[in-house]
Amino acid sequence: MQMSIYLSCMSTKPPDPAFDEQELLPAIAQDADSGEVLMLAYVSQEALERTTETGLAHYYSRSRDELWQKGETSGNVQHVEEVRVDCDGDALLYLVDQDGGACHTGYESCFYRTLDGDVVADRLFDPDDVYE
Amino acid sequence: MQMSIYLSCMSTKPPDPAFDEQELLPAIAQDADSGEVLMLAYVSQEALERTTETGLAHYYSRSRDELWQKGETSGNVQHVEEVRVDCDGDALLYLVDQDGGACHTGYESCFYRTLDGDVVADRLFDPDDVYE
């Protein structure tokens, strides 16, 4: 029984990321070592291609309407060790080695607060020192 | 200097989840113990309220256009230990204690495959035994 499940797993064709259905897919960046969830951003097909080609995380900014490389300004780039795709192909997981903090506020993770406002992450840099 | 940064952290008002800008926000479910990213789904304001009221993860299905409680059919519910909100309030992180596997395919995580199709997670149940 175990073997049949195993074989069934290995023959499961991975879905292509569903860019035919959605222009942008959400991508979670997770620290490959600590497991901390660092941020959620969106990727276009081109952003994903640039990510896999360069090994550096690229996203697509919905507000600026442009492709961007994480850390282009701050230097806090993400070295992508692995990209995973979810069961139905409409979300991605980047396992990354994060230089500096992921959040533009200076925190290690963008998810540094609970709903109640408790701060639960470390602040690694002062954004005034990094962004003009 | 350290103290001023600390005080600055604590006075940072958390943003309300940005349901005024987006009806649905992406929510990442992460295993509170192992740190594994289990799934990404979407939440409405009502889904988030039901989650915080009951302690069980609720989401909003875009395909079925309805509120749903994770595990309602399979029994694989998520006990939510903490909800975090990201820096700009447009993504949520559920830290959960997951009963059974999170993925409807039987895997522990929906992110069980790399882009290249390698299976990188454990299969915990046979979906034929769980879903009719």
TrEMBL record, chains A, B:
Query: Could you tell me what reaction this enzyme catalyses?
Result: 1-(5-phospho-beta-D-ribosyl)-5'-AMP + H2O = 1-(5-phospho-beta-D-ribosyl)-5-[(5-phospho-beta-D-ribosylamino)methylideneamino]imidazole-4-carboxamide
Residues annotated for Mg(2+) binding in this entry? D86, D88, D90
Gene symbol of the encoding locus: hisI
Cite the entry's keywords alphabetically.
Amino-acid biosynthesis, Cytoplasm, Histidine biosynthesis, Hydrolase, Magnesium, Metal-binding, Zinc
Q: In which pathway does it act?
A: Amino-acid biosynthesis; L-histidine biosynthesis; L-histidine from 5-phospho-alpha-D-ribose 1-diphosphate: step 3/9
This chain's protein is named Phosphoribosyl-AMP cyclohydrolase
Q: Which Pfam families match?
A: PRA-CH
Q: Where in the cell is it found?
A: Cytoplasm
Q: What is the organism of origin for this protein?
A: Halovenus aranensis
Q: What is its EC number?
A: 3.5.4.19
The top EC class is hydrolase
